[in-house]
Specification:
9 helices, Rossmann fold, six-stranded parallel β-sheet, alpha/beta, eight-stranded mixed β-sheet
Length: 322
């Protein structure tokens, strides 16, 4: 039985605790949060020990693995304290506040043979899993562009990072994952319209190694929530809705059908739209089960520290590209 603990009981930390308590062969050893009142509320709900100091939890409970769901500015401190003890970690995204901090975590984890996973949860969305399977099977053909939109009202619970680290990290990871390519060029525009110390609107244009173009559109100033990604190629266009866990395909019936006597070897026509049947499932449970399996088997997690670092580097390229 794997012994685990949750550090940080904000919105995501509470959800981690809820799901972990329902996974077989897992023993949740305790909850830690500097806000002891919040920590006690969660701990009492599940009958768990509560700690204000994460190091005390590490020393007294000896967990095999922990979930780090604290503000981003605290990721490095807690992750380093864990991996130095040989404790495996799943760190909520972004992996750290800076790329230097992320590299320190990864280096220490490698030295101690510890698993580092990063909580880019959309990879575990059932619609994304189906989309990735179909892309890898060649159903889209050559990919031309990928367009990611993640829009929402301002989340008042977040004060330590801007929209680039909070929302864009999801979409940047999706772009890298679905295309299987790294970004070679970034141009971006950002804006601050709510008088916060951080950016709340980001538009980015990315070019990948193989020429794919990416469009990034994220903000905290939209009075509704949009979570959508489209990826277009020679055979058509996939559209995924993260919130509803839906996947659609718009076929291009003219794919690779050169017109007689024309210099064009590729045309586009409107075609049939297919809505795929998706077996809906909570992505967080899949994420935690994947992490647990990686820890138990010593296998590479789906999103490791290096993936988290690559995404964080892109965030800084975007926010510094002004």
């Amino acid at each position: 039985m794997l012994k685990m603990a949750v550090i940080g009981v904000g919105s995501m930390g509470r959800n981690h605790a809820r799901v972990l308590m329902d996974i077989p062969d897992i023993q949740v050893m305790g909850i830690a949060d500097k806000n002891i009142i919040n920590a006690r509320m969660v701990a009492d709900k599940y009958g768990l020990p509560v700690y204000e100091d994460h190091n005390q939890l590490f020393d007294e409970c000896s967990p095999d693995a922990v979930i780090i769901a604290v503000p981003t500015t605290l990721h490095k401190e807690i992750a380093m304290d864990a991996v130095k003890r040989g404790i495996h970690v799943l760190i909520e995204k972004p992996i750290a506040s800076t790329t230097d901090e992320a590299e320190e975590i990864i280096k220490m984890a490698d030295q101690n043979h510890v698993t580092v996973a990063v909580g880019h949860i959309e990879r575990f969305n059932p619609a994304v899993i189906e989309l990735k399977k179909r892309i890898d099977a060649g159903e889209l053909g050559q990919i031309f562009m990928i367009h990611a939109r993640r829009l929402s009202p301002y989340p008042r619970r977040i004060s330590d990072v801007g929209v680039a680290k909070d929302l864009a990290t999801h979409e940047l990871d999706m772009m890298r994952y679905l295309t299987g390519e790294e970004v070679v060029h970034v141009s971006a525009e950002i804006s601050k319209v709510m008088h916060s110390p951080h950016e709340d609107i980001v538009f980015g244009l990315l070019r990948f190694q193989n020429g794919i173009l990416g469009i990034l559109d994220v903000n905290w100033v939209t009075p509704t929530t949009v979570r959508e990604l489209t990826i277009t190629g020679e055979k058509g266009m996939f559209v995924v809705n993260y919130l509803s866990q839906e996947l659609f395909f718009h076929e291009n019936p003219a794919s690779r059908q050169p017109l007689e006597g024309s210099v064009w070897d590729f045309t586009v026509d409107a075609g049939h739209m297919t809505r795929f049947q998706i077996n809906k499932r909570e992505p967080l449970r899949s994420e935690l089960e994947s992490f647990i399996n990686a820890v138990k088997t010593g296998s590479k997690p789906l999103i490791n520290g290096y993936d988290g670092l690559a995404t964080l580097k892109l965030v800084y390229q975007i926010t510094n590209n002004r």
